[in-house]
Amino acid sequence: MLIITIKQGKEKSLLAGEPWIYASAIEKVDGKPNEKMKAGGTAIVQSSSTKFLARAAYNSKSQIRARVWTFDEGEPVDHALIKRRVKAALAKSAAAAKKARPDQVVKLVNAEADQLPGLLVEQYGGKDGYLICEFHAAGVDAWKVPIVQTLIAETGCRNVYERADELVRKGEGLAFVEGALAGDEPPDEVPVTENGVKFALDLKTGERYKFR
């Protein structure tokens, strides 16, 4: 297990609930070399006096060296936690998803706001449409399979597509990958109405076009 020790005085932001740990706040990282190089591996975060502060996803290639999963020492980071977080995020967005028209895009998961740092999930077309996922951080990227499995199980939507921002993933030291994670890829364009305005949207890139 990796252990991140925070510099004395730098733990205040964590104690206040800040979920990001920057490289400048870290005194040292202890662990096996292969664990340090594994993007998204779970680490225990402690103060300079070795007091437990958090469990976080560590990434040696990002300026945000770690993103907090939990401040609860008794809460392990495992499949059960990931499943709970995804289900909780979907419960929060359920009302909006239920009342959305087939030509609307609904945000289902909103990264840190849903305690899933770096994960964005949108839905188009309801149960028979598409889930569009973006994995902007190493932690959620490492848990991609259980995240997708839970999304499918909870929404009933069988088509899941990974959309990628090349610059963001490069900054995280992650490979640029995109494509269908389950089911079919979305079409090149779908009709979308937002605030009474109709336009064409490429779900695979997020690009908007004048409706033809």
UniProtKB/TrEMBL annotation:
Gene3D superfamilies, per database record: PUA domain (2.30.130.10), RNA methyltransferase domain (HRMD) like (3.30.750.80)
Major site of localization recorded for this protein: cytoplasm
Domain (PUA): residue spans on this chain: 2-91
Domain of life (superkingdom): Bacteria
Cell compartments where the protein resides: Cytoplasm
InterPro entries in the record: PUA, PUA-like_sf, PUA_sf, RlmI-like_PUA
Keywords: Cytoplasm, Methyltransferase, RNA-binding, rRNA processing, S-adenosyl-L-methionine, Transferase
MF terms in GO: methyltransferase activity
Signal peptide feature range: none
UniProt entry tagged with the keyword RNA-binding: yes
GO biological process: methylation
Descriptive protein name: SAM-dependent methyltransferase
Originating species: Massilia violaceinigra
